[in-house]
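Hey,

The postdoc asked me to send both predictions to you directly instead of through the lab channel. I've kept everything plain text so nothing gets mangled by the mail client. Protein one:
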Amino acid sequence: MDLESILDELYGLRPQDFTAARNARAAEARRAGDPRLAERIKALRRPTVSAWAGNLLVRRDPERVRPLLALGEGLRSAHRGLNGEQLRELSRQQHLLVSALAREARDLAAAEGQQVGESALREIEGTLHAVLADPAAAEEWAAGHLDRPLTPPVGFTAAVADPGVVANRAPAPRPGGRPQAEGPERAAEPLGRERRAERDEARRAEQEQARRKAREQAASAEEEARDREAEHARAAAESERADAQADEAAERVDVLTEELKEARSNLRAAEKEARRARDRARAADVAASSARHRARQASQNVGRPTSDRE
């Protein structure tokens, strides 16, 4: 018995089957003389529905993991290189692939008899976005042992959600700077200084407007990401509290089940002892009745003459 094989077994079970199986494996490890392994098993947390569905996707369709990991590397590379055009294309692929995989995870869970609600579906999508953003998260997900959904980095999500922000990060022209030198043919054209100044001013105004729009888009995306992060944190906290209560209830059920077994065993023993006591009482009653009968006969014989007794 080793922890890795136990992890594979337990996190492949439906959430409602997890606690009983975990406790059974911990008890087996303790009986086998490995208390440290027993404690590590006992510390394992029951997976949320979304985490379990994500694990199920990795286990049932590992070939679908590879395109997601490759897409994640491409997105991170484009993000580091501030390649807006590449980010736009990869972002389109991202939304298509994440949506498809989340739906597939939901269908796999339904086939196992576990329904996945909208909140859990969003958590699955969040896990997949985290896999795209972070190689460590991708490795953790690929192991198939998640007990909670993963959360993508806020900055990465905002940039990928609106790749136009990255595309508009070109440095602003230096205020008061001279226009870029033009070729000989263009320089020779009869463009007056006033027209050039107007054109430069219009270009600067257009660039400033583009930068302002980019800043507004970035701020809006960041605010939306923070709101979603807060919503996710609240949902995760509620889910964790519910899971803790469920684990506590399941453990209480296990304790009560053992107590009920012991009580039934004690009841059977008491009933058996009661039957024996009744049998002994009946035997004692028969013996007492027989003794009383013999005593009466003896008493009668004492009062008779000897000749009568003969």
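Protein two:
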Amino acid sequence: MEPLHGMNGREMVLKTVHFQSPKGLAMTLPKEYRYDFYGWGPNPSPDARCKKGVDEWGAVWDNIGTTSLGEVKQFPLLDWEDFPKLKIPDVREERRWKGIEEVREKAGDKFLCGSGFSIYERLHFIRSLENTWIDIYENPEKLCELMDILVDMNLYAIEMYGKYGFDGLMFCDDWGLQDSLMISPKHWRELWKPRYQRIFEAAHKAGLVTILHSCGYIVDILDDLIEAGLDVIQMDQQMNMGLDLLSRRFRGRITFYCPVDIQAVMAFGNESTIRAYCREMVSKLGTPTGGFIAGYYSSPQSVGHTPEAIRAMCEEFMAIDREIREGIFQYV
């Protein structure tokens, strides 16, 4: 692990996100390289995604593959008539937050990031994806009532994270297909945007950086997410949208938190292609004052990433970090 030359991980991430000219490249790479984040969340989390079994909402999960990801096979709320009987986890239970008062000290000089709760994916884990899409047109009031329960869970988590000295809030909502948004941007703006805004505004008031993981083609809502208060977009795919487009429209307005594209480049590119993509991505999505965090995909075997590909990516990100510190890295 290389030293940060006078700037610790927490400072590196905060200066990156706030475009305050960090002395290097913020990153979350495997432990033999460098990891500037320290993550923590309630245990058990009401947003836990099981590999197999029944979650707190009553959804039945199963897994027949080789990954750690399960999928819902039985949905707990297929009929809105059963809404009053839905099992709603109590996010305020003390057992979930046991040890939170010790986390800041454990995190040391790393960026301490708390886990939030999905407000889209959890809906279709409860209702099914098909029913969720139908609800947008036929039952928007009920859908929003359920969504607001999830928003309120996030607001309580934000309260706890702010109280105990956390630096950021992160949660996951995959919104994109390969070449389009899953739903119309119009409905997204009507139903989801104001709720993201509530979460992000509360997070900012608590002193937290806002981070959202979302994969797929999400260009159509990135402006809206920025307007709603999103600080960092964590995306594992970029090529389906194009680095040039992302750079032209969003560079300098939001921080990109990315590995090399996990589907197009890491899975099929050779080492020289991967290294070149690292440089192109940082130079086009980052700026001399910040705006880019390097990452890696934490389940590489499930998407066909070889050890050689991972090493090439990590070594190149580390080389870029050195060049930024020395003032010789070239941005476009």
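Summary for protein two, as requested: DSSP finds ten helices and eleven strands in the chain.

Thanks,
C.
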